[in-house]
């Protein structure tokens, strides 16, 4: 009888001890798994775009928007190359603060726009200006729509800005 009890005890111990150890480890690991994503959520990696694809896209959009001739296309390519390279250089310069970067972006954009206007005919300049204004308007409306959606009432009937 004692031999049977001993065998049962050994078998139950062999089952219980590893199960208990595994359960204890998973119980200890569970809080870490829950807190780690909150504490060190991996940042969404920024999308890296090849400057050459940016140049192609700008040229394609310009061709489509204002119907560039072949001669104008050849004149616009170096302007686009210079502009995209300048923007990439500003983005890559880690020594600049945000205000300086914005100022350099603006300067590069103004230089690009004035050089491009030298290539385009007056009709094309007017068409490009109206398209830019339409895009700005759409962007402003989209931004305004986002801020208005933040002010809309929640399920409880209170606006999110009023609850502080």
Detail the topology: elements first, then pairings.
Elements: H1 2-39, H2 51-66, H3 70-92, H4 98-119, H5 122-151
Helix pairs in contact: 2-3, 3-4
Overview features:
single chain; 164 residues; mainly alpha; 5 helices; elongated; disordered C terminus
Fold and architecture overview:
- This protein has 164 residues and is an all-alpha fold.
- The protein has a domain at 51-145.
- Helix content is 79%, strand content 0%.
- It contains 5 helices and no strands.
- It has helices spanning 2-39, 51-66, 70-92, 98-119, 122-151.
- Helix 2 runs antiparallel to helix 3.
- Mean pLDDT is 80; it is low at 33-38 and 155-164.
Low-pLDDT parts are 33-38, 155-164
Instruction: Kindly report the oligomeric state of this protein.
Output: single chain
Fraction of helical residues: over 70%
What fraction of residues sit in β-strands? under 5%
Query: What structural class results from the helix and strand content?
Result: mainly alpha
Radius of gyration: 31 Å
Overall strand count: 0
Question: Taking all residues together, what is the mean pLDDT?
Answer: 80
- What is the makeup of the main sheet? none
First-to-last CA distance: 72 Å
Number of helix segments? 5
Global shape: elongated
Helix-strand pattern: HHHHH
TL;DR?
The chain contains 5 helices and no strands. With 164 residues, the protein is mostly helical. Helix 2 packs antiparallel against helix 3 and helix 3 runs antiparallel to helix 4.
């Amino acid at each position: 009888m004692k031999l049977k009890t001993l065998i049962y005890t050994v078998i139950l111990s062999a089952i219980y001890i590893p199960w208990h150890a595994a359960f204890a480890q998973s119980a200890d690991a569970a809080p870490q798994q829950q807190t780690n994503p909150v504490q060190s959520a991996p940042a969404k990696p920024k999308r890296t775009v090849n400057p050459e694809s940016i140049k192609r896209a700008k040229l394609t959009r310009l061709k489509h928007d204002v119907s560039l001739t072949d001669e104008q296309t050849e004149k616009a390519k170096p302007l686009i190359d210079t502009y995209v390279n300048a923007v990439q250089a500003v983005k890559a310069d880690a020594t600049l603060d945000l205000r300086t970067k914005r100022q350099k972006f603006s300067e590069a954009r103004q230089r690009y726009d004035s050089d491009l206007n030298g290539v385009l005919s007056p009709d094309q300049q007017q068409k490009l200006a109206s398209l830019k204004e339409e895009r700005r308007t759409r962007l402003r409306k989209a931004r305004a729509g986002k801020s208005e959606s933040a002010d809309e009432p929640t399920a409880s009937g209170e606006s999110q800005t009023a609850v502080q």
